[in-house]
Design a protein that fits this description.
heterodimer, A: alpha/beta, Rossmann fold, about 30% helix, globular, B: mainly alpha, elongated, ETF_b (chain A), mitochondrion (chain A), Electron transfer flavoprotein subunit beta (chain A)
Chain lengths: ~250, ~80
């Protein structure tokens, strides 16, 4: 029976914010922009906390990799019910180059150090949409993976996972320890209310550097350019069907 | 205001204020409405009535949480999943 669960949470630009590309096309504007926990990470935290409430696991540890502000994201996880947090401090250029490969190396090292039996992550982050961290972490640890989970049941020494796949659902049974990634319909994350946030201030967040875990953060990717999606052209209103046909002919569509 | 209820009312106000930060029409809009709603009842002294108003406030908290969840869920569903046609 899994004892300790590691939940990865990522600080991303809030889902409701309108994204703007920097004038030099090097990236997206993040200064002064509202950030919050990745929605899929919220679902991951909720699942871990639910498992603890059902007494199927003993401890939930929330992990986030990033600059000082990542601690806010960990605090939200603590307010949702995680027991303690680990902030892996990555800032500056290292943070700009931080991607799934580096994060999965960090998570794998932490899983070994903390003797975790289960890692739950969101299926992807809404900023980079990589959908790779869970899979890479499982590969680095040589653990089975249950990705796109929409239902999770813990059994004796195994986990039954219902996965959302193209064209339907797939049910698999995997051994523990394992890595799970959460899909949208896994659960309904609880809101981190103010009283819970106050209570969570007493919970500990440990500070760790990637070097302490023996992780090399060099990236093998280089972002060349970031562009906005092409602007949608304005529509035109027409009065009659003849007008419509005329305009379609002009545009060479008919 | 009866003393134990004063704590309840303040707790309610703080919780709603915190929730209002994410309000779609803006935090300022929410705060104005929140303040006037509370001020309207500031002279209430009947403990029963106060408890009822606090319960109504708790209900608003639940409604806001549901609103925020639905907004986020629908946005994620629209962005990441095929329309079920």
């Amino acid at each position: 029976m899994p004892g300790r669960v590691l939940v990865g949470v990522k600080r991303v630009i809030d889902y409701a914010v309108k994204i703007r590309v920097k004038p030099d096309n090097s990236g997206v504007v993040t200064d002064g922009v509202k950030h919050s926990m990745n929605p899929f990470c919220e679902i991951a935290v909720e699942e871990a906390v639910k498992l603890k409430e059902k007494k199927l696991i003993k401890e939930v540890v929330a992990v986030s990799c990033g600059p000082q502000q990542s601690q806010e994201t960990i605090r939200t996880a603590l307010a949702m019910g995680a027991d303690r947090g680990i902030h892996v401090e990555v800032s500056g250029k290292d943070y700009e180059n931080l991607g799934p490969l580096q994060v999965s190396k960090i998570l794998a090292a932490l899983a070994k150090k903390e003797e975790a039996q289960l890692i739950i992550l969101g299926k992807q982050a809404i900023d980079d949409d990589c959908n790779q961290t869970g899979q890479m972490t499982a590969a680095l640890l040589d653990w089975p993976q249950g990705t796109f989970a929409s239902e999770v049941s813990l059994e004796e020494n195994q986990i039954k996972v219902v996965r959302e796949i193209d064209g339907g659902l797939e049910t698999i049974r995997i051994n523990t320890p394992a890595v799970l990634t959460a899909d949208l319909r896994l659960n309904t994350p609880r809101y981190a209310t103010l009283p819970n946030i106050m209570k969570a201030k007493k919970k500990k967040i440990a500070n760790v550097k990637p070097a302490d875990l023996g992780v090399d953060l060099t990236s093998r990717l280089e972002v060349l350019r970031v562009d906005e999606p092409p602007q949608r052209e304005a529509g035109m209103k027409v009065e009659t069907v003849e007008d419509l046909v005329g305009k379609l002919k002009d545009a060479g569509k008919v | 205001m009866a003393n134990p209820l004063k704590g309840e009312v303040i707790r309610l106000y703080k919780t709603l204020l915190y929730l209002g930060r994410e309000y779609p029409k803006g935090a300022a809009y929410f705060r104005e409405r929140l303040k006037s709603a509370f001020m309207k009842n500031k002279d209430e002294t009947d403990p029963e009535k106060i408890k009822q108003l606090v319960a109504r406030g708790d209900h608003v908290i639940k409604e806001l949480e549901a609103l925020y969840f639905l907004r986020k869920y629908r946005a994620m569903k629209k962005r990441y999943y095929e329309p079920e046609n």
